[in-house]
Amino acid sequence: MKKNISIIRLLAVFCLFSVFLCGCATKVSTLPKKRVVSQGTKTKVWKSKKESGKFISGPVRYSKLPDQASTLAARRLSVQSQSMRTWRELGPQIRKSIEYVQRNPSGGLALRRNELRLTWGQLRKSLEDLERLLPRLDRNPELLGKYFVWYELQSGAEMTGYYTPVIDASLTKTGPYKYPVYRLPPDLRKARPGQTHPWSEQLRKAYRVENGKILPYHSRRAIDIDKVLAGRGLEVAWLKDPVDLFYMHVQGGGVLRLPDGRLRTAVFSGSNGRSFKGLGSIMLHSGVLKKSQLSREKIKAWLLNNPRQMWELMAKNESYIFFKVTRGQPQAAIGKPLKSMVSLATDPQLIPLGSIVGFRTDIYPKRGQPSRRVNGIGLAQDTGKAIKGTRLDYYIGTGNQFKYPAHHLKKQVPVYLLISKSALRR
């Protein structure tokens, strides 16, 4: 019995001693593992605003703004800065986006990213919620912070401008009107959905069959220099300026002013499926112009003064666009007309068509005038071959008076994707 009591006392002493040691043990902090970056690797920096107002590039990913920050961002919005008197004027354009979005399956993914996934149904609900809020926003724009989640694109985006030019044209070849606008050729074919032929992506977009062989469709060089489409009755209009014609291809359409003053619209109807290359990049890498000279005015002047080199340089952009001529307004990628100072061309992989986009930028209305700040809400309604990744193209308007502000907009801007809170609860 005494032996058992001694063993119990010994165990009790051991336990007390153990507790004492645990209480006196020194806490050792765990250091985070050091990130090892191999030499030559480029690293990305989180976005932060400098005193100069410039933004440092960060990761191409979305992050949710805190509610207070969303409310402050909404409070800065100015519908007047977008050349509208009231938020109600945005209603018809929102309805056009809704009509586009509802053509897609509600449960299908409109945006598929690691940090953010959105369905077409959520985009539609967000547009409908914005439409219902419009009558209240003139007095209380902060409601966009209360009822919407603002997802900030941490990298920001490079914003450029575009417009619909009015171009002198004729429906027949006459006098100075000698540069053809072609309709979609009947021998241009596209791969049908589900076809399993191991074609390249280019051939899936457009191809032709010649002597039983499947070939890429004709390049710009073949069409403009070798004249492979001439004489086939494909001309729907004629222009008198070849550089205007090239840029109409870049814009994807234009308004044609006929000799009697009537207006027609050249609407995109297809392409040759070949890769796009910007004319500024072509001229820079060819050594004919310096980077500081790459405005459209200087590019056009150089080309017209060097006609022999002009066709060769333009041919390096192999992409070629075909048009149909109508009496309607220019159409966006959603199949509806654009709205000036509202519509945006985006990369759908990053900002899906139908999205509501908050942004801040500066517009230069005319030469010699100070810039005008725009704190706005845009609608993603258009696309473009040059619009990839973190690039936004802001639609300034229809008419040559918008040429200057469109061509002088190139700015790194903050960008937000707005999704209604009720849509996120779905």
Automatic annotation (TrEMBL):
GO terms for cellular component: outer membrane. It holds the Pfam family 3D. It catalyses: Exolytic cleavage of the (1->4)-beta-glycosidic linkage between N-acetylmuramic acid (MurNAc) and N-acetylglucosamine (GlcNAc) residues in peptidoglycan, from either the reducing or the non-reducing ends of the peptidoglycan chains, with concomitant formation of a 1,6-anhydrobond in the MurNAc residue. InterPro entries: 3D_dom (IPR010611), MltA (IPR026044), MltA_B (IPR005300), RlpA-like_sf (IPR036908). One of its GO terms (molecular function) is hydrolase activity, hydrolyzing O-glycosyl compounds. PANTHER family: MEMBRANE-BOUND LYTIC MUREIN TRANSGLYCOSYLASE A. This is peptidoglycan lytic exotransglycosylase. It comes from Maridesulfovibrio salexigens (strain ATCC 14822 / DSM 2638 / NCIMB 8403 / VKM B-1763) (Desulfovibrio salexigens). It is an enzyme of class 4 (lyase). Keywords: Cell wall biogenesis/degradation, Lyase. The keyword Cell membrane does not apply. Residues 166-324 form the Lytic transglycosylase MltA domain. Its EC number is 4.2.2.n1. The lineage of its organism: Bacteria, Pseudomonadati, Thermodesulfobacteriota, Desulfovibrionia, Desulfovibrionales. One of its GO terms (biological process) is peptidoglycan catabolic process.
